[in-house]
């Protein structure tokens, strides 16, 4: 297997810097120590063409970082690009093509107005569904209604996801939104897709995150505290979301979780980073991954069991909801948080005795999902 | 190592069909035989956002092909996406993440006018070089001048690349341009970038190519005539082309070739598919790869030694020059040609006793290069 030996990220938010400068900012701390050890670069990015008028991003980034002679590719899987890039990096290491891979997740979205960003993101929907006005927020709205009706879940429990994630984000110096919100704030803010409100969706952010991955047998020559990738797997589901029999099932998430668990042999987790593009998704994903009991996930939020000091802390980083969601960077940033947690370096967000964690990087509305399981032992 | 067990491509050219229908057309012959065996899809594509207003292409394609539950990613490396995708597919197989990978290369460029296509492609140049008006054709022009001066090469020899490639393309039912041209036609056609003329650059094409890759130990259960990938490697160079000491060196190509040769143990080749975006590139690449003697590559063309029945046949498919260059599809299409040649199924273009071949998939102006070596034995 493989290990993460260094990790870094930029402040997320509305940034003045270019796409290139963001990539540089997140990777520079890694390059300072390990520049000469890097022999492959995977750039996780989806929309450099649409948002920044740039193509061939991977080669431009390696040149910008003075890594001209290091082979590189761009891996795209929309919001799930980060997890997919980790999967590819692991494969390159396993196959012997590379002995170390720098994964740089980066996206700069604030170049466009909100309406135009939404239009770009909607281009991932199948033409058929796009033409009838389906959007990712409208699907989240539908999911929330079905979930509440099926399980008798309380509206407050869903809003509580945002309260918890904003609280965590306020403790994360790299988060986009560093302000706590109350349950009342969430419930009374502007409705985006009934019943979900503004605070329950991730903001539009710029940002970058980088990790250095090596083969596990080499890890200790890079750092005395490697974080090992114990399992990584991908699942897929139809892009025709209206064709899915059960919107709550999240097949791609479940399959990716099952495969990654089998690969790792891990059965219980000290923390998890999930894809909370909308609050309801965090709950349904937690259930699909077996972190929360099916149909009862919402209760964990009422009882504080997903808080940093709870039974299963979720999104200690603030999640997409508060940390922000620069598309190509998000999945990599989840691994940065996992790296910090396992090494005991997460500051105010530190989970006690965090040894094993899970992260879920998801594309579309569960069109694709990658689960990565990390721990302090190989 | 790994093997190609099935391969297919669409007619290249200006096509009415959508991006999705092109992907379907090239992969359908493979799906008909092996649908249930496919457990990963790599989509090689660079510009679905810019040309087609589509993101999340890999998931949309798997849904379109009724492969909803098959994990997928998009791999981008501009013109070199195809080679990069083959490298990633090999890694996924080596690492055990997949037991079979369908690589679909696809691009639909004719949605935009020529001027807009050129503008999109130019977005791969570093902002610094883009701003002073450098373009890929202008670099080819410079390369041709330097080459002619340094080696005393004849202008006719460079033009002869186009004559030979059009002759080969005329024999390829899938080629965009199926019309022979004479040396005089080439020399007297419109000058695009002095001294190079219109016939010496690839056209703007739509098209798709697909290959199915499996581990070599599984190959014979798919076909009695697998084509084995004996080596695949990537090299890189600066995107700041004006920083390169010697424009003729093509460092990325040389390094990729050396690494792939070492991996494969192969020293001589029966045919090669090169990245002839401009005629001069085919000659300089052939030298960088050791297929043609340095400084004497042009002479091979004067003497017909790169013809189908020559000493080292190059671009039997017609190459980018005549077959066309749908960005994400080109590198995969090279492997389709190699597959046909090694299996003895290349029809009028068949090289006698073709057992081992090389293909070069290149990004930018040698910013990145992937060399794949195939043969009839593992």
TrEMBL record, chains A, B:
SUPFAM superfamilies this protein is in?
Thiolase-like
| Molecular function GO terms recorded | acyltransferase activity, transferring groups other than amino-acyl groups
The coiled-coil segments of this chain are none
Please give the Gene3D superfamilies that the UniProt record associates with this protein.
3.40.47.10
Query: Keyword set for this entry?
Result: Isoprene biosynthesis, Transferase
Q: Which source organism? A: Metallosphaera hakonensis JCM 8857 = DSM 7519
Which GO biological process annotations does it have? isoprenoid biosynthetic process
Q: Where is the Thiolase N-terminal domain?
A: 2-215
Q: What is this protein called?
A: Acetyl-CoA acetyltransferase
Record CDD domains: SCP-x_thiolase
Sequence ranges assigned to domain Thiolase C-terminal in this UniProt record: 235-375
Q: Name one Pfam family in it.
A: Thiolase_N
């Amino acid at each position: 297997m493989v290990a993460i030996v260094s990790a870094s990220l930029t402040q997320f938010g509305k940034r003045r810097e270019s796409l290139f400068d963001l990539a540089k900012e997140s990777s520079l701390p890694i390059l300072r120590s390990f520049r000469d050890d890097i022999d492959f670069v995977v750039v996780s990015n989806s929309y450099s063409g649409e948002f920044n008028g740039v193509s061939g991003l991977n080669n431009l980034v390696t040149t910008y970082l003075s890594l001209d002679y290091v082979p590189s590719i761009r891996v795209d899987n929309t919001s799930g690009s980060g997890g997919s890039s980790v999967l590819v990096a692991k494969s390159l290491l396993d196959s012997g093509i590379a002995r170390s891979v720098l994964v740089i997740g980066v996206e700069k979205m604030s170049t466009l107005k909100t309406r135009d960003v939404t239009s770009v993101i909607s281009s991932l929907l199948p033409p058929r569904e796009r033409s009838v006005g389906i959007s990712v927020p409208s699907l989240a709205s539908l999911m929330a209604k079905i979930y509440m009706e099926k399980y008798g879940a309380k509206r407050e429990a869903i809003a509580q996801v945002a309260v918890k994630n904003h609280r965590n984000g306020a403790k994360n110096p790299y988060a986009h939104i560093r302000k706590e919100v109350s349950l009342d704030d969430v419930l009374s803010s502007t409705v985006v897709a009934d019943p979900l409100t503004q605070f329950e969706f991730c903001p539009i952010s710029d940002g970058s995150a980088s990790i250095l991955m090596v083969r596990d047998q080499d890890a200790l020559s890079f750092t005395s505290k490697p974080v090992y990738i114990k399992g990584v797997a991908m699942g897929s589901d139809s892009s025709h979301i209206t064709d899915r029999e059960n919107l709550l099932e999240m097949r791609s998430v479940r399959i990716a979780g099952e495969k990654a668990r089998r690969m790792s042999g891990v059965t219980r987790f000290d923390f998890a980073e999930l894809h909370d593009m909308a609050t309801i998704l965090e709950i349904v994903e937690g259930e699909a991954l077996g972190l929360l009991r099916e149909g009862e996930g919402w209760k964990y939020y009422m009882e504080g069991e997903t808080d940093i000091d709870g039974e299963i802390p979720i999104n200690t980083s603030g999640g997409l909801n508060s940390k922000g969601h620069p598309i190509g960077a998000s999945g990599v940033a989840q691994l940065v948080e996992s790296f910090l947690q396992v090494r005991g370096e997460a500051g105010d967000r530190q989970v006690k005795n965090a040894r094993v964690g899970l992260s879920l990087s998801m594309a579309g509305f569960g069109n694709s999902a990658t689960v990565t399981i990390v721990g302090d032992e190989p």
